[in-house]
Amino acid sequence: MEKTVPAKDRLMKSEKNWMNGEIRGKILVTLCAVIMISATLAITIFIGTKGLQSFITNGVSLIEFLTSKKWDPSNAGHPLYGALPFIFGSFAVTMLSALVAAPLGIGGAIFMTEIAPSWGRKILQPVVELLVGIPSVVYGFIGLTVLVPFIRDHVGGLGFSLLSGTIVLAIMILPTITTIATDAMSSIPKTLKEGSFALGATRWQTIRKVLIPAAMPTLLTAIVLGMARAFGEAMAVQMVIGNVRTLPSSILDASATLTTIITLNMGNTTYGSVENNTLWSMGLILLVMSFGFILLIRYLSARRKI
Questions:
Q1: Staple partner for 257: which of 9, 89, 114, 225, CB 3.0–4.6 Å?
Q2: Residue 10 confidence class, pLDDT cut points 50, 70, 90
Q3: 118 and 40 in one domain?
Q4: For residue 219, what are the contacts with CB-CB under 8 A and spacing of at least 6?
Q5: In Å, how far are 169, 263, 273 from 268, measured between CA atoms?
Q6: Are residues 300 and 187 in the same domain?
Q7: Cα–Cα distance, 7 to 105 (Å, whole number)
Q8: How far apart (Å, rounded) are the C-alpha atoms in residues 47 and 279?
């Protein structure tokens, strides 16, 4: 006859298995967290070390690097490493694309959540998701073959310009802003809207004076996330912006960004050379700006919780 296991023993065995599962789960998630933290620290230390070598080891002037307009590493007599045109190009194309995408994204979010019937969101949501799934090189290729000739023929200039980069980047960051803004507008308590209607406000007055101010911290977070995405984009911008080494005088002039110069020159430099180290310095600037965007997002998120 089979021996019957007492209920107390079964309970102890079940508790032991549960404890073992808890321990394994805790070890697994702790290991994942350690890997993520270690990877972040390793990347930061590596880029920081490489990025500072041009100033510490090679004697490149930090002030000249940040403020000079001339970039000519091939000058045998006196190589020039002025990254100001590329820094300006990165900030210019990022700010301009945000100015274009932010109203469109927030307007689309308001339309989906407050104006359109239920079918409106069912149509727009897949469209936004489709824009997210398109590779950046496809955006760049479309911009190169369609947008650049259109601007050259109907607006002016060579077509390769800040305007082309702005439009391409605006389309690329539009899904990010729209998605987060839609979630922000959807999460607003209905009591705010109902209270506004009860006081006699119209729908547009409610949207403008109640809903948008209530969602403003999250809407600003969406814009900053879009700017962070735009600031680090390389391939699509490289194909349409012109990649020149001078400061643009208008939005129709060609320009360059930190990312485009890095991708264009990384294969033409020797590892450990001064020019190669200055490219790492540009990467360090990108990393610092990414940290700046993250801190700004954290600040806006903290405001949202207050």
A1: 89
A2: low
A3: no
A4: 106, 180, 181, 184, 212
A5: 27, 10, 11
A6: yes
A7: 61
A8: 11
Beta bridge partners of 81: 71
What is the CATH number for 288? Answer: 1.10.3720.10
**Number of structural domains the chain divides into:** 2
Tokens at residue 298, please? Answer: 């954290």
Q: How far is CA 202 from CA 199, 215, 221, in A?
A: 9, 18, 27
pLDDT in tens, 192-241: 888 888 888 888 888 888 888 888 888 888 888 888 888 888 888 988 99
Per-residue pLDDT, 164: 92
Residue range of the domain that includes 199: 80-305
Cβ(124)–Cβ(107) below 8 Å: no
162 touches 96 (CB < 8 A): yes
**pTM (2 d.p.):** 0.82
The answer to whether the CB of 185 falls within 8 A of the CB of 109 is yes
Burial 18-51, CB ≥16 within 10 A → b, else e: eeeeeeeeeeeeeeeeeeeeeeeeeeeeebeebb
> Which residue is it, tokens 């984009």?
233
